[in-house]
Amino acid sequence: MSKCRVCEGEVRKFFDFGKQPLSDTFLTEQESGEAYHFRLAVGLCTRCTMVQLLEEVPRDRMFHHDYPYHSSGSRRMREHFAQTARDLLATELTGEDPFCVEIGSNDGVMLGVIKDAGVRHLGVEPSGGVAELARKDGVRVRTDFFEETTARLIAGEDGPADVIYAANTICHIPYLDSIFRGVDALLRPGGVFVFEDPYLGDIVERNTFDQIYDEHFFLFTARSVRGVAHRFGFELVDVHRLPVHGGEVRYTIARRGERAPSPAVPALIAEETSRGLAELGTLEKLGDGIDRICADLVALLRDLRGRGLSVAGYGATAKSATVTNYAGIGPDLLPCVYDTTPAKIGRLMPGSRIPIRSAEEFGRPYPDYAVLFAWNHTEEILAKEEEFAAQGGKWIVYVPEVRVL
Ligand code: DWN
Ligand code: SAH
Ligand code: ZN
Hints:
The protein is built from 13 helices and 18 strands. It is of the alpha/beta class and 405 residues long. Ligand DWN binds next to helix 11 and helix 12.
């Protein structure tokens, strides 16, 4: 039995992927296969309904100078964050000399737009390499983990924040108590804490089990977020479903009593209840889908290889580590994966040790089939690589089920 990271209640496991490598550690050919492994298992807190991993990976093993993910690698995500910045500027950053803090600002994709508007800002980003990229664009960044102590230091140096924003970061942080105490120390009265993360409702609906990996410690629902906010004197005052990264929710949180909650909050929680998202039985059914998808994908790859057809992967995503390692897909079934990220090219996929090549080499020559590991960027990638399909190439997707497009 494992204890809930939020309320110390009992966490009941509903799926176990066994030992897994870190999803964003890309070794070179020369480095041995003896990489760090941890047990990737996920469960539901029977008391506060928070869905979470059972084992925590030490944060410095994941988020360090060489963290490879660049948020700006997708055009759609650049547009999404530019729109987010414009919305925050128009709604929350309207007072005199407003101040915006972003937790997990990565390469500055969102804060760059806040900076261009001439608004005071600060990114808090422990991964030094991506923080440096943001600085090169003129974004102010503190290379640090956001937590209570950091928040108090920022409040002392820069004063209170009008908005504290985070995308795809709060679900990465097991120590939510320190986060909320930090937000309380830094947020001005009447300010908001806004964050967006993958939504358990979408993961269950579309079988996107590869959203489960080391960095995604929590899989949130409106109900579980409302609960954790409440514990620390805050209130969930708004929710918005977002189409990015396969389905997310943006949560708006204010100090209790400061803002009236939108009807969207109880409406989404009622929907979650009717779908049984806080019931072990519902979540256990995910497992049937995971095993079926992995078996179908391996069978398809074996069949294609057996017929002498060439297959490659597209997008060395963090998510794909869960798929390749749980399904047992190695270079024999999938000889290489193409990706645009400089820090991944020429290295090996975690665990499976499948070589990664530059996406520029994708057409030299095209494989017969390509597994779209970056399925959350389907529209963007299919448009960019239209020549692949035009020349008879076929895309393989595996969520919500294995399918040749
Ligand atoms: O939560 C997280 C999200 C925001 O980013 C982090 N924990 C880690 C990371 O997860 P991911 O690696 O699964 O994210 P993406 O955005 O699905 O990764 C896309 C990958 O595909 C990148 O390595 C870049 C690559 N790519 C590409 O080669 N060609 C992406 C696009 C759009 C392309 O056209
Ligand atoms: N916000 C970006 C990056 C998401 S990747 C986007 O949506 O694309 C997650 C980021 O969170 C990484 O850049 C990682 O270094 C950062 N991170 C992890 N723990 C953190 C913490 N305690 N405080 C601030 N950033 C953190
Ligand atoms: Zn709990």
